[in-house]
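Box 3.1 A note on notation
Throughout this textbook, protein chains are presented in two layers. The first layer is the amino acid sequence; the second is a token string describing backbone geometry. Keep the layers aligned when reading.
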Amino acid sequence: MSGESAGGTLKVEVDRTRCIGLGLCEAASPKHFEVGEDGKLIILQSIVDSGSSGDLAEVEEAVASCPTSALRFVR
């Protein structure tokens, strides 16, 4: 998804029916994701500035690393 919205913003969402709380997303992007003590994912920042390559790269890695495909970008 890199470069699709250059200079804009993207939103990341979680499908809670798929999320199993492994925390790979949190490891990839702790600024945006956290797994709570109850094992449920908390999205700390759902809006990602696509102009900030560091943030975008972290969130893209988090989305790609999710083994259940529970995370996705939306416009």
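Confidence is low (pLDDT under 50) at residues 1-5. The radius of gyration is 12 Å.
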